[in-house]
UniProtKB/TrEMBL annotation:
The chain crosses the membrane at residues 59-81, 101-122. Keywords: ATP-binding, Cell inner membrane, Cell membrane, Kinase, Lipid biosynthesis, Lipid metabolism, Magnesium, Membrane, Metal-binding, Nucleotide-binding, Phospholipid biosynthesis, Phospholipid metabolism, Transferase, Transmembrane, Transmembrane helix. Substrate binds at R11, A32, F33, R34, Q35, E36, R57, E71, S100. Mn(2+), Zn(2+), Cd(2+) and Co(2+) support activity to lesser extents. Its cofactor is Mg(2+). It is a multi-pass membrane protein. ATP binds at R11, E30, E78, E87, I88, H89, K96, D97. It comes from Shewanella salipaludis. This is Diacylglycerol kinase. A divalent metal cation binds at E30, E78.
């Protein structure tokens, strides 16, 4: 049930608190999120230190965030599917597989962007 006085700056603070709870839950319960976050924290300084244009730097950083965002959505979909029931159903498997494919596509996008930006620096 929604609180009656949930508006203005109070709503922003409550929403921020819920977001922090979600990030904490993902860190505690989702190994893939932990791995991708650690990788992003390792790659972020590299993106900041490379001798590249601002636009290229932005592209590298954005793709790291995209991977994390898609992983959070994948975890949320999996949690909802698991909450609905334990029985095996083709649509449950389909939902999980499609969400997993979205994570794969975001990782592929990240890898391609990083390769395209970094390749000229190596040759």
């Amino acid at each position: 049930m929604k609180p009656a006085n949930n508006h203005g700056i109070k709503r922003v603070f409550r929403a921020t608190g819920f977001s922090m709870q979600g990030l904490q839950s993902a860190w505690v319960n989702e190994a893939a999120f932990r791995q991708e976050l650690i990788l992003a924290l390792f790659m972020l300084p590299i993106a900041l230190l490379l001798d590249i244009s601002t636009l290229e730097r932005l592209l590298l950083i954005l793709t790291l965030f995209i991977v994390l965002i898609v992983e959070l959505l994948n975890s949320a979909i999996e949690a909802v599917v698991d909450r609905v029931g334990d029985e095996i159903h083709p649509l449950s498997g389909q939902a999980k597989d499609i969400a997993s494919a979205a994570v794969f596509m975001s990782l592929l996008l990240c890898g391609i962007c990083w390769a395209i930006v970094i390749a000229p620096l190596l040759w």
